[in-house]
Design a protein that fits this description.
Elements: H1 9-21, H2 25-38, H3 43-55, H4 59-72, H5 77-89, H6 93-106, H7 111-123, H8 127-140, H9 145-157, H10 161-171, H11 176-186
């Protein structure tokens, strides 16, 4: 019988994410919590627990885990990004935006954070702001087709239909799922 080495944080994290990605959230906690218990000063171990709580919709616990991680490392962009995502889920968009902006103060050119802000603005139908942040994200990491599709949607809503069509043409072969999402916005009555 195989005995798991609880002193191997990477193995614990891998198994936690394996269960999490398979939908076995409760089982993933066994591994994430073991990693945090054995590596209490490891920011990523603490954030893994926070992410599992986030996926489990246990937002209070997720916030506490993020705050523990940020206490360990106040410059953890990943910690601020996860905390902001929790605030988004709680519909506290002002707090989410402030938290994302804390991450940008640490790393102004973080493509993920810029994309998360753009996506948040897109959900809130603040299309000009979405366009600004998604464009900035793609300036840093230009091959993100999900961000490109979202930028295309923002373009449509701020009167840049030609740009949106160009984005659709650019991503339709490489990312059919996101291309379809954009197509549905460009041609809402067609399937």
């Amino acid at each position: 019988c195989y005995q798991l080495d609880s002193t191997n944080k990477d193995a614990l994290s891998f198994l936690g994410y394996t269960y999490l990605n398979d939908g076995a959230i409760k089982k993933s906690f066994d591994y994430f919590i073991a990693a945090e218990r054995n590596f209490p000063q490891d920011v990523n171990a603490v954030l893994d627990v926070g992410y599992a709580y986030y996926k489990d919709s246990s937002y209070g616990d997720a916030i506490r885990a993020c705050n523990r991680a940020l206490k360990l490392d106040p410059t953890s962009v990943k910690g601020y990004d996860l905390l902001a995502k929790v605030f988004e889920r709680l519909d506290d968009y002002a707090q989410a935006l402030d938290t994302y902006k804390n991450a940008l103060e640490i790393e102004p050119q973080n493509a993920n954070t810029l994309e998360y802000i753009g996506e948040m603005y897109l959900k809130r139908k603040q299309y000009a702001d979405a366009h600004e942040y998604l464009t900035s994200s793609l300036a840093v990491e230009g091959d993100n087709t999900e961000a490109k599709a979202s930028l295309g949607i923002a373009c449509l809503h701020i009167g840049k239909r030609t740009e949106a069509l160009g984005i659709y043409d650019a991503i339709k072969a490489s990312d059919p799922e996101n291309a379809q999402r954009l197509f549905a916005e460009i041609y809402p009555s067609k399937k």
